Amino acid sequence: MTRKGRRLLVISCAAGVLFVAAGLVLFALNDTIVFFRSPSEIAAEGTRPGTRLRLGGLVKDGSVQHTDGTHVRFVVTDGGADMGVTYVGLLPDLFREGQGVIAEGVLAPDGSFTADSVLAKHDETYMPKEVADALKKQGVWKEGEGTP
Amino acid sequence: MLLWIAFSLMTGAAILAVLWPLRTGAAVPAASTAEADLAVYRDQLAEIERDRASGLIAPAEGEAARTEVARRILRVSAERGREGASSGDDRRRRIVAVVALLGVPLLAGGLYLSLGSPLTPPQPLAQRLEAQPDPSDIAILIRKVESHLEANPNDGRGYEVVAPIYARIGRLDDAARAWANAIRLLGPNAQRETGLGEALTARAGGVVTGEAKSAFQAALAADPNDPKAQYFLGLAAEQDGQTAEAAQRWSALVAASPPDAPWLGLVGAALTRIGAPVPAPASGPGAADVAAAQSLTPEQRDAMVRGMVERLEARLAQEGGDIEGWLRLMRAWTVLGQQDKAKTAAGQARTHFASDSGALGRIDALAQELGLGS
Amino acid sequence: MNPEIGHYALVLSLAVALLMTVIPAWGARTGDAALMRVGSTLALVLAGFVGLSFATLVVAYVQSDFSVLNVVENSHSAKPLLYRITGTWGNHEGSMLLWVLVLAIFAALVALFGANLPARLKANVLAVQGSVATAFLLFILFTSNPFTRVIPPPAEGQDLNPILQDIGLAIHPPLLYLGYVGFSITFAFAVAALIEGRIDAAWARWVRPWALTAWAFLTLGIAMGSYWAYYELGWGGWWFWDPVENASLMPWFAGTALIHSAVVMEKRDALKVWTVLLAILAFSLSLLGTFLVRSGVLTSVHTFATDPSRGVFILAILVFFIGGSLALYALRAPMLRQGGLFAPVSREGALVLNNLLLTAASAAVLVGTLYPLALEAYNGAKITVGPPYFNLTVGALMLPVAFAMPFGPLLAWKRGDLAGAAQRLMAAFGAAIVIAALAAYAQGGGPVLAPFGMGLAAFVVIGAMAEVIERAGFGRVPRATAFARLRGLPRSVFGGALAHAGVGVCLFGIIAETSWNAERIAGVKVGGSFEVGGYELTLDRLEPRNGPNYRDLVGVFTVRRGGVEMGTIESAKRLFTARNMPTTESGIRTMWFSQLYVSLGDELPGGGVGVRAYWKPFVTLIWIGSIIMALGGALSLSDRRLRVGAPKPAKKPKVRPDPAAVPAE
C-alpha cells in the first residue's frame, strides 16, 4: 500500500469510529434526558401521564404519611400548585417538611406522581438549583433569603 | 517584631533564589537540547540491542528499529552545536537581579499590607482559655464557664453567672437550661425562677408558655412582691384571654410599686392596651406621671433603643456572619448620633466580609450614605 | 504558628510564581543558561512557601484558632484531631490552596529530577507551570483567601459538613488533586515544546513518567472517591455520574489515551501532533472540572460555595489557558514534522483505536455534563442527563476497548499480524468461554448479557497475561530460557500487563455487581428478619450511642445463611449536634469479594425502623481492579528506561550509526 493509501485508511477508520460515537451520543441524548418540572408547570401544561419527569418543589408541611414501613406519600408544592407523590423506599437523610426536594419518576394517570428516587438537599444551606429557580418563579422564595 | 523579622527572612529567601543561580561561579554549561535527545536515543539503541540479544525481538524487527533510531541520531547530530547556549550576559543578569531585589519586596509587601492583618495575633483556642480573662472577649468568658461547668457539673453558682449572659446574647435554650440547673442545685428563689421564665418566654417568641408560667408562679411563691413575675403572669393571663385577671395583677403591681419604678411605663401601657384604668403607684403622685410614663420620655426611649443596639452589637460579636445585622448596627449608631461607633462597626463588618465582595459593596454603599467615609 | 506567616508566605508565593513565569522563559528565549537555572531554584522556593502557607493553615485548624475566618466556618473544637486536619481541605479556600500546593510540588519535582531534560525545555516547562501557579494564586488571594481574620474571634466554629467528616475525605481529595494537577506538568511540557517548535521521540520519553504519575494518582483518587460515596452516602451506589465525578473521569480518559499515545511517539516518532493535543486536553479537562466544581454552575455534593465572582475568575483562567494553549497549538502543530508510518493493523493502529475510543468516551461524558447547561442557556428548559445516557454511551465505547485490549500488545510495531495474535489468544478465549458458561449456569435465569460480560472480563485479565507469557516465549523456547527472558523483560511490560489485568478485574466487578445485585427495602421491628441475596438479616436491637460530636442510633443485625450464623452488621443513623444534621453510617460486611450493605432509614411510627439492604456480589473488585491499574502504572514508572541519566556534555565517544543500518525505506 502506498503512503497516501495507508494514511487514508487510518483516517477513514478514525472518521468511522467518531461517526459511530457521535451517532451514539445523539441517540442516547434523545432517549434518556429527563425534564424538570414544578407542580405549577405540570398543571399549566397538562403533561401527559406516563411521562418521565423530575418534579421539584417544597415538601408541603404536614403532608408526609408513612403508610407502612417503606411506603411514603407526601405533597410537593411550589406555592402555585400541589402534587401528590407516592414513593417506596427510604427517604434521604435531609428530607424534611418545608424543605426543598426533587423526586424523579412517572406521572400516573390519576394525576399523582410515582417517584422512584427522591433527592433532598445535601446540607442545610443547599437548595437544589432547579427548585430554587422554580420557587422564585412562583414568588415563594427570594434571592438572599436563604433556605425558606 | 518577631513577625516582621520572619517576613524579612522569607523575602530574603525568595530574592536569594533568584540571585544564587546568577552568581558567576555557578556557570555549569546547560544541557543542550541535542545532547539530551542523543542521550535518549543512545539508550533506545542499547535497549534494542539488549532485547535482540535475549531474543525478545526478532532480528529483522530489531534491525528495522535500529534503523529508525539511528536516523534520529543522525538528524540530531546534525543539529548539534547549532544552538548557542550563552552562559548569560551581564546586562540581563543585572536586570533580573534588580527586578528580584526591588520587585519581590515591593509586590509582596504592598499586597500583604493591603490584604493581611499583621497586628492580629494568633489565638489558638487552648491559649485563649488559659490566658487571663479578657473582659471584652465574652465568647471566651462563656467558654471558660462552660468548661468549668463540664468539669464541675454541680456548681450551681456557675450556672447562675452564665445564665443571664446567655440570655443577653440570645442563646435562649442555653439560658433556660442554665437557670433550670441553678434552681436544681441552689434551690429556687425569685430571681432564678423569673430568669427561667423569661428565657422560656423569649424562646417561645413572647408567648408565656405553661412551663414559663409555672416558673413565674414559683417565683411569686418565693417572693410575693416580685414585679417581673407579676407582670409576666399578667401577660400570661392576657394571652389566655383572661383580661380581668391580667388587669387585676397589673393594677396590683402598679399599686405596690414605688413611683420611680422603671417598669411603671411598661405596665401602664399594658393596662391601657387591655382597656383597664391605670391606678396610681404606691406613694401616689398624680395621673400626669402615669400618662407621661405611658409614652416614654425621649431619654427613656433613647435608653431603650440603646439597650437594643447594644444587644445587637453583642450578638454580632458572637456570630459575625449576619450582614443584615451589621448594616442595621451601622444605621442604628448613626441614628443615635454615635458616628465613631458606627465607623467601628463598619470596620468590623469589613473584616468579617473581607472575602465577600457583594457584602463589602453593601457595607461601603451604606457607609457612603451615612456619611461615614469609606 | 501565626496565621499571618502563612498569609505572607502566600503573597510571597505569588511574587515568586510571577518571577518563575518570566525569568526562565526569557532565559530560554535568549539562550541564557543563568536565567534558565533561576527557574529551578524558584520552583523549589515556591513549593516551600506554598507548603509553609498550607502548613500554617493546618496548624490553625489543629489549634482551633478561631481568629481565622476559614477555621470558624469549617471547624469545631469538639471535632476529633484527624477531622480537624482534614477539614483544612474540606472547604473551598483550603482545597484551592491544596490545589496550588500540588501544582508547586510538581514543579519542584521537575526542578529536582529533570536533570536529563534539555535546559531550554526545562526552563519553558517551569515557566508555564509558574504561569498556572500565578493565575491560581491570584484567584486564592483575591476571591478565596483562607487567611481572612476575625476580630474579635468567636469561641466556637461552625463545624464541617458531616458528610465530609470521614476518613475517605482525608485521602480522596489529595489523591485526586495529585492526579488532576499532575497533568499540569504534561500540559507544561506540551506548551513548552510548542513554544520551542520542536517535538520528537525524546520528548515523549520525558513526558511519560509525569503522565504515568498523574494517571496513577488520578486512578486511585477516582476509586477512593467512588468508595467514599458508596459507603458514606448510604445509597449503595458506587458511581452516580455526578458532574464532579464526570469532571474527574474526563481527564482520566484523556490521560489514559495520553500514556498510550506517548508510547507510540517514543517508539516510532509518530502521532506527535495528536499526543501534544492530548497533553493539552488532559489538563484542560482538569481545569474544566475545577471550574464546574468551584463555580457552583453545577450543584453537587462537592460544591462548597456558590459565589459568582469566583466562577467568573475561574472561567477567565480557563479561557486563558485552554484558549491560549489551543491557539498556540493551531499555530505551531502544522509545522511539526510527520513521523513514522504504520499499517492499520499494527501496534500503532491498535493504540490509535484505543485513543479514538477513549477520547470519544471523554467527549461523550463532556457532552452529557454540559448539555443541560447549554440547553438551559439556550431556551431555559431544565433537563437532567442521567445515568442511562452515560451508561449507554460510555459502555458502548468501552466494550470494544476491552475486547481489543488483549490484542494490542501482541501486535508487532509497524505491521501486525491479527490472525497470529488471535491464535495466541486462543487459550485466553477458551478460558473466557468456560467462565461465561459457568456464569450462565450459576445465575440461572439472570440477565442474558451478564455471562458475556463475565467472559469478556476474564478474556481481558487472561489476555493481559498472555502478552507476558508470549514475550517470554513459553512454549516456543526451552522453559529455562523462557524464565530467563521473563526476568529480563522490562518492568514496563509487567506494568502494562498488570494495568490491563486491573481493567479486567474492575470490569468483572462492575458487570457482576450491576447484573446480580439484590436490593431489599423493609420496615423491621426489633427481633424481625428479612432476606436479601440469600442471607437472612435479623434486627437484634436498636441502641443509642454517643460520639464526640454526634449521636448514633445503631441497629445491630445478625446475618445468617441457611440458618448458620455468619456474624453481625452494625448500621447507624448519625445526628451531628452542631448542625443538627443527620447522616447515614451504612454497615458493610465483606465476604470474599462480595459485600452485604445495610443502611438505616427513619424510625417508623409503629416502632421499628426502615432498612435498606443490598447484596453486592464481587463489588470490591471494582476498587481492587482500580488499585491494580494504579499499581501497574507505578511498576511502569519504576522502569529504569524512564530514568535516562543526565546527558553528559563531556566528550563521550559518539555512537556512530552503522551506515549499513540506514537503508532507504
TrEMBL record, chain A:
Q: Name one GO cellular component term.
A: plasma membrane
Q: What is the lineage of its organism?
A: Bacteria, Pseudomonadati, Pseudomonadota, Alphaproteobacteria, Hyphomicrobiales
Protein name as annotated:
Cytochrome c-type biogenesis protein CcmE
Membrane side Extracellular: which residues? 29-148
Species whose genome carries this gene: Ancylobacter rudongensis
Which function does this protein serve? Heme chaperone required for the biogenesis of c-type cytochromes. Transiently binds heme delivered by CcmC and transfers the heme to apo-cytochromes in a process facilitated by CcmF and CcmH.
Keywords (A to Z) from UniProt: Cell membrane, Cytochrome c-type biogenesis, Heme, Iron, Membrane, Metal-binding, Signal-anchor, Transmembrane, Transmembrane helix
Where does the chain bind heme? H122, Y126
Identify the SUPFAM superfamilies for this entry: Heme chaperone CcmE
Main localization of the protein described in the UniProt heading: membrane
From TrEMBL, chain B:
Highest taxon of the lineage: Bacteria
Keyword flag Transmembrane helix: yes
Where does this one sit in the cell? Cell envelope
Boundaries of every Cytochrome c-type biogenesis protein H TPR domain copy: 130-261
Q: What InterPro entries does this protein map onto?
A: C-type_cytochrome_biogenesis, Cyt_c_biogenesis_CcmI, TPR-like_helical_dom_sf, TPR_CcmH_CycH
Q: Name one Pfam family in it.
A: TPR_CcmH_CycH
Keyword Metal-binding tagged: no
Q: Membrane-spanning regions, if any? A: 6-22, 95-115
Sorted alphabetically, the keyword list is: Cytochrome c-type biogenesis, Membrane, Repeat, TPR repeat, Transmembrane, Transmembrane helix
What name goes with this protein?
Answer: Cytochrome c-type biogenesis protein CcmH
Protein's organism: Ancylobacter vacuolatus
User: What broad taxonomic lineage does this protein's source fall under?
Assistant: Bacteria, Pseudomonadati, Pseudomonadota, Alphaproteobacteria, Hyphomicrobiales
Automatic annotation (TrEMBL), chain C:
All copies of domain Cytochrome c assembly protein, residue ranges? 89-295
The subcellular location is: Cell inner membrane
Could you list the residue ranges that cross the membrane?
6-26, 38-62, 96-113, 125-144, 175-195, 207-229, 249-266, 273-292, 312-331, 352-374, 394-413, 425-442, 448-469, 489-511, 618-638
Tell whether Transmembrane is among the UniProt keywords. Answer: yes
> Ranges for the Cytochrome c-type biogenesis protein CcmF C-terminal domain?
315-640
Entry similarity comment: Belongs to the CcmF/CycK/Ccl1/NrfE/CcsA family.
Q: What is this protein called?
A: Cytochrome c-type biogenesis protein CcmF
Q: Which organism is it from?
A: Ancylobacter vacuolatus
